[in-house]
Amino acid sequence: MSHQKADSWPDFILADVTLDAYCRRMSNLGRLLATNGRLQKKEVSEALVDSDPATKEKAAVWLRSELATLRDAEKKGQHPVRRGKTLSRLDIADLAFTMLESARAPGDQLLSLLQELLNVDRHRKSLAASSHEQFDRAANWEAQSALQGAGCGVRELARRVSVSVSTASQWKKSPQYGKRVEFYKMAWKDSIGDYVKIIEGKYPDITEAHAFRLAMLVNARFDQMRPMMEYNPKETTELLAIVVYALRIEFKTPPITCRFLPTGKFSDLTPEDVEQQKTVVMAQIAKLVGDPIGTTD
Known about the structure:
297 residues
């Protein structure tokens, strides 16, 4: 870091090294504004040296369009500068900072140009989108963990949603995060509440957290069985509860392959068809777990 004396020139002015180099650079920039940007002589002079922010805006609008063309081409792997289709990024940047240096304060167009040159606009948009998504994912995951009686440490939360530990810590302290966690708790209770009731009804000694854990497994492992519920919701839900309990709630247990009638016409299913499907699934579970499994009335 440089340490300047109170009466010395600022570093951004000394970058030109000599007065002659400064004059040549300003002349070249003026030519670009006049020839490529089609600004009038007075407009060029004001854009480069006038202190009024409004005098920079027309040039900034043109430079933003040049930069937009350049950025779009760069994404496609094209090289418009080589073909003389746009100014180079350095020329655009030099013009932008030259206008900034002489302005009392930058106008909206000039500020936007500087944002785009430095990719600050993309960074902020990405940050906003990813932060919201990760914040939401974190709250959802913590809600599911809480319902299943599991803790949710800051480091684990940060790892789960790919943010820093400090960010996760700030989230957990904020009232908005707490409200989002409660929202997801209610949403999950509404979504899998039927599963929880069936499980608790079949196994009276089970804890609520254990019942929710099993219900979560039902939801995650057997989405493909949901169409059967169009025919017989109670039968299917009871079957799912039995299936998951039989798996000893091991999250790493390989998924079971369920066989369904190929027609997909659930209105044509009979009680015998449903019972047949239940028999197939139960046989697969018995083979996987290694012991006979029966229903509990």
